[in-house]
Amino acid sequence: MTYDEFNVFCGAFPATSHVVQWGGAHVWKVGGKVFAIGGWGEDKQPAFIFKTSDLNYVFLAEHRGYRPAPYFATRGMKWIQQTETSGPLDDDLKYYLSESYRIVALGLSKRKQKELGLNFKSKDD
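and the corresponding structure tokens:
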């Protein structure tokens, strides 16, 4: 996935905003909270950072093509950086970006979710 493809994909989620910050990284937010970052790859190669569930973090931290995200993981946060971006993992990346968006959006207050027009169903619905 390229940064352009990453930006198009993340921009399709409701109530998102995009800024370029932190050394030229593409930062995507929902309700003012970061859910995805495109940047910080080695040798100027694309790399993507996203928030994960506890289970996915444990799995991905040991999986080839992924690593605990610089800065975030050292502070105990469950963020992963995908470093293998040649194409075969694009579908996986889309899944993890979607999950990151969902995790972060669900972490917003119910009031903020409603204000942004986010309608998440509870497990009981």
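(Above: one complete record from the training split.) The helical segments are 3-11, 54-61, 90-106, 110-115.
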